[in-house]
Design brief:
The protein is α+β, with helices and mostly antiparallel strands and about 180 residues long. The protein contains six helices and six strands; from the N terminus they run H-E-E-E-E-E-H-H-E-H-H-H. It has two domains: about 1-70, Single Sheet (N-terminal domain of TfIIb), CATH 2.20.25; about 75-175. Helix content is about 45%, strand content about 20%. It has a three-stranded antiparallel beta sheet with strand order 1-2-3, with no helix packed on it. A three-stranded mixed beta sheet has the order 5-4-6.
């Protein structure tokens, strides 16, 4: 027995997976013969949508097929100004920021990282986050990055009704 004598079933499974990385029996059924015995022959990470593409081969019929592994996002809600709940949508935030910024001044990757930061914040909060709080986070971030983008975003977010309101906001940002 020796090395494996004191390992419980859970640790044994991890030991086997670690040492036999390319042949792992999983509960992934072959779409051709329904066998659960497959091996991963190729694995690629897709950074765009945080997925993992695995090329598998069935150990029974030898046919190959592809599977994708994605993180399932939690169903998060935010509270709108009128008190109603809306599904939290990072794409909506991303789109709003991109409309306001000059992508030559703030790289798209930096914007996406910031939106990911907002998503983590919303996900880790115990209570429902108000949309107003998210808007203020975006304004604070834009204020440090690009004052013109800040004014563009603020004009929509704060719903300016006159040119005087915009001028007052510019004066506030110039003092900082």
């Amino acid at each position: 027995m020796g090395l494996l004598q004191d390992i419980d079933t859970y640790n044994l499974l991890h030991y086997v997976i670690y040492h036999i990385q390319y042949i792992v029996i999983v509960f992934m059924k072959c779409p051709f013969c329904c066998s659960e015995e497959t091996k991963v022959v190729d694995k690629r990470d897709n950074k765009e949508d945080s997925s993992i593409r695995r090329r598998r081969e069935c150990l029974k019929c030898s046919k190959r097929f592809t599977t994708y592994e994605r993180i399932e996002k939690a169903d998060l809600s935010i509270e709108k100004k009128d008190g109603s709940l809306e599904r939290f949508d990072t794409e909506k935030i991303l789109k709003g920021i991109k409309k306001a910024v000059d992508l030559d001044k703030i790289p798209e990757e930096e914007i996406e990282d910031f939106v990911d930061e907002i998503e983590r914040y919303v996900f880790n909060k115990d209570e429902i986050v108000r949309s107003e709080e998210i808007g203020l986070m975006v304004l604070d971030w834009l204020k440090t990055k690009d004052s013109l983008a800040y004014i563009r975003f603020a004009s929509v977010y704060k719903d300016f009704k006159s040119l005087d309101e915009i001028v007052n906001e510019i004066k506030v940002i110039q003092k900082i």
